[in-house]
Design goal:
Elements (H helix, E strand, L loop, with lengths): L12 H23 L6 E5 L5 H9 L4 E6 L2 H10 L5 E4 L12 E7 L8 H11 E12 L6 H13 L8 H4 L5 H7 L4 E11 L2 H5 L8 H8 L2 H14 L8 E13 L2
Parallel strand pairs: 1-2, 1-4, 2-3, 4-5
Antiparallel strand pairs: 5-7, 6-7
Helix pairs in contact: 1-2, 5-10
Length: about 260
């Protein structure tokens, strides 16, 4: 079995929500509590996607304003639909954002840094738009470790198709560990955030991989029906399925924060 190149492009909001957006929403409140920003702060969400982190800021942080910047038109449409009138959304990328210098008190990014082509250029741009002394923070999935819904998928895929290993986010995204994050962010603090990712059944776990959004779903949908069936069976054999059919997994994110010099 040969593996095609799989795109990291995220364009459509609904498949992303079913696959990983719903779990991102559970990380965001713990992340924001850790930051401890005062009420009335001006927030920027870099790579806001469908608006999960923006929504958490609005619900938990009593912000003066929230701006989300995102390159994907599809994601922006979902964010605007979900948060109409509560936040401002602008199209742009992490290395070139349509904001003035020192215009926000906190810039945050959820599950995006590993997809940015030049993280250091993005951090320079973030420093430009955050006021001196402001907060710069992010979180990324622990792909190589306890992001278990993906780990079970890729471990099974690589066992069937060794070429799939090179598509595994745990291999491809070396930024997603504490040491790499500390190196990128000067004088940074890093911590883990673990959340439960319960699935009511194997179908509840498996169906989001058929949406084609993101590396693992794109890989699954690149396979022919027989190969996809073998992958499905291999994952099912590995998962800790309970007697009632439910599956209790853990998703770990690494969070990093630093003060803007």
């Amino acid at each position: 079995m040969s593996s095609p190149a799989v795109s990291d492009t995220w364009e459509r909001g609904d498949p992303y929500e079913r696959y990983v957006g719903r779990w991102s929403r559970r990380v965001a409140p713990s992340f924001l509590d850790w930051l401890g920003m005062p009420a009335g702060s001006r927030w920027l969400d870099v790579g806001c996607g469908t608006g999960a982190l923006c929504a958490a800021i609005l619900d938990h942080c009593a912000p003066a304003s929230v701006v989300g910047v995102e390159p994907s038109e599809g994601f922006l449409a979902t964010a605007k639909k979900n948060l109409s009138g509560r936040a401002t959304f602008r199209q742009g990328n992490a290395a070139a954002m349509p904001l003035a210098e020192a215009s926000v008190d906190a810039a945050v990014s959820g599950l995006v840094l590993n997809f940015v082509p030049d993280p250091r250029a993005a951090l320079n741009e973030i420093n430009r738009v955050v006021r001196p002394g402001g907060c710069i923070a992010a979180y990324v999935w622990d792909y190589a470790g306890r992001m278990e819904l993906m780990r079970y998928f890729w471990d099974a895929a690589a066992a069937l198709d060794p070429a799939a290993a090179k598509l595994d986010e745990g291999v491809r995204f070396p930024l997603c560990n504490p040491q790499a994050l500390s190196s990128l962010f000067a004088s940074a603090e890093v911590r883990e955030i673990d959340i439960a990712t319960p699935f009511s059944s194997f179908d509840d776990y498996w169906q989001p991989f058929l949406g084609g959004q993101g590396p693992a779903p794109a890989y699954a949908m690149s396979l022919d029906e027989a190969a996809r069936g073998r992958l499905r069976s291999a994952i099912l054999q590995r998962l800790p399925v309970q007697a009632d059919g439910s599956i209790a997994l853990v998703a770990r994110a690494w969070a990093v924060r630093a003060a803007r010099p």
